[in-house]
Design a protein that fits this description.
The chain has helices at residues 2-15, 29-39, 42-55, 75-79, and strands spanning 25-26, 63-64, 68-70, 89-93, 98-103. With 113 residues, the chain is α+β, with helices and mostly antiparallel strands. The protein has one domain. The N and C termini lie far apart (43 Å).
Length: 113
């Protein structure tokens, strides 16, 4: 898992800036790959990333395409931390046990009082 994540980070830092911007989706394919690798198994992630890269061409419309991950909610999650923690990602229900993984942005910094 760490090797795959390191490869994506290497691509994002050193190879992607040399190429023209051509990703038709949000989040970009490399960001999608990082999200998928951090929240799914390696085999599932490789297939999802591969299909995403195959769809990233002129034959598809593009648009917003968040990763879909499996997640089981357990009662222990609710009571594991007694304090409030800012979420890094939001889970939006897709099917029975599958969810869209959406990055949470901190908008409080942008507010002008």
């Amino acid at each position: 898992m760490k090797i795959a994540t390191s490869l994506v980070i290497f691509y994002k830092k050193y190879i992607s800036p040399l190429l023209p911007r051509s990703c038709r989706y949000y989040p970009s394919c490399s960001e999608y790959a990082l999200w998928q690798l951090s929240h799914s198994g390696i085999i599932t992630s490789i297939f999802a990333i591969g299909f995403r890269i195959l769809r990233c061409n002129q034959l598809f419309r593009g648009g917003i395409d968040y990763p879909i991950i499996r997640w089981e909610f357990k009662p222990s999650y609710i009571f594991s931390k007694p304090y409030y923690v800012e979420p890094k990602f939001w889970l939006i229900k897709y099917k029975k046990d599958k969810f869209y993984l959406i990055k949470a942005f901190d908008l409080s910094k942008d507010k002008k009082c």
